[in-house]
Amino acid sequence: MVEYHDLTIRDGCHAISHKLTADMIKRHCIFAEKSNIPVMEIGHGNGLGASSILIGKATLSDIEMISLAKSYLKNTKLSVHVIPGLATIERDIDPAITLGVDIFRIASHCTEASMTKTHIEYLASRGKTVYGALMMCATCPLAVLVEEVKKIKSYGASAVIIMDSTGSFTPDQVEESFKELSKLDIKLGFHAHNNLGLAVANSLVAIKNGAEIIDVTVHGFGAGAGNTPLEIMTVLHPSNDINVLESIDALGYKAPVTKVINILTAKHTLHSVFEKKILESAKKYNVSLIKLVEELGSRKLVAGQEDLVRVIASQMSEQS
Q1: Which residues are annotated as catalytic?
Q2: How many angstroms separate the CA atoms of 311 and 31, rounded?
Q3: Which residues contact 193 (CB under 8 A, 6 or more apart)?
Q4: What whole-number distance in Å separates Cα of residue 106 and Cα of residue 75?
Q5: Which of 15, 100, 192, 238 is the most buried (most CB within 10 A)?
């Protein structure tokens, strides 16, 4: 049975500059409970401990968000996204454990699984459900990805989420990846971005080839071109008696539109969160959008390096 994880008010926070409100949390939790959503995720778009002037300041603290969500959730489990380096065990994870977070997803770049070791081992030792999550997997050779998943399994994670953060995967690539990864005897999940309009197709192919967890958002609400739409997946591949069609529109989430910038970042395997910085920098420094994305892609920038976009655009302007 496939399990849908609703990331609308975590990944979707990128689309609202992390300005998640108490009312949005309340409405979404009520929706999740009513619709039989098995798991929903909450927090700053970059996860626990990420709220900052540099990355984006959240309206509410992690503790406020988690506490409010737990007060409404009775059957739906609550998960959080954790990037080691942004989140620490003492400051961020321990309070989340105390507040009753059910699932911790520890994320790293797809070639840096070793960064998750300390956090995964700690949570496993505390008896918590902990997953690994590998971001930007379309940038990684499959043989390397296999070894990184093996590492996460050895640390004690009960599942690994394969994240197409750049929205670059094609169905053929998803099929090849999951056929190989499914040999590793660990639960697999898939997180798609819709830059090329393939999020639903890729998610269905992942299911067909062994994925047991699929990340979704309401109307695909998320960074850049958005994610796999919850409502479409529950029609094409029903699961867990989820029924969202009666109440989903009342939430007010606006479906993202795929723009040229989203297609370009997918083509050059750049993280979807780069969209705003690229558009702002291209305009400010009067450089070609296409050439700027090409340059960023050639430098293989990863999530967390958004500040370099402005620097590189400035250098290109001076050289023109």
Answers
A1: 14
A2: 42
A3: 164, 165, 166, 167, 199, 222, 223, 224, 225, 226, 227, 266, 272
A4: 23
A5: 192
Taking alpha carbons only, the member of 218, 168, 210 closest to residue 189 is 210
- Give me the pLDDT at residue 319, please: 85
Q: Walk me through the domains of the chain, giving residue ranges and CATH numbers.
A: 3-251 (3.20.20.70), 260-319 (1.10.8.60)
CA distances from 4 to 48, 166, 182, 244, 276 (A): 21, 21, 18, 12, 28
Whole-model pTM: value is 0.95
Decide if 296 contacts 309 (C-beta within 8 A).
yes
Is 157:149 a contact under the CB 8 Å cutoff? Answer: no
Degrees, nearest 5: CA angle 191-197-198: 50
> So what's the pLDDT on residue 241?
86
Confidence of residue 54 (pLDDT cuts 50, 70, 90): confident
CA proximity to 93, closest of 56, 122, 116: 122
Closest C-alpha among 118, 136, 111, 42 to residue 81 = 42
In sequence order, the β-bridge partners of residue 103 are: 79, 129
Cα 276 to Cα 78: distance, rounded to the nearest angstrom: 29
Of 166-180, 196-210, 301-315, the range with the lowest mean pLDDT is 301-315
> pLDDT band at residue 89, thresholds of 50, 70 and 90?
very high
Average pLDDT, the chain: 95
Strand blocks (E) in the chain: 3-9, 39-42, 77-82, 103-109, 129-135, 159-163, 187-191, 213-216
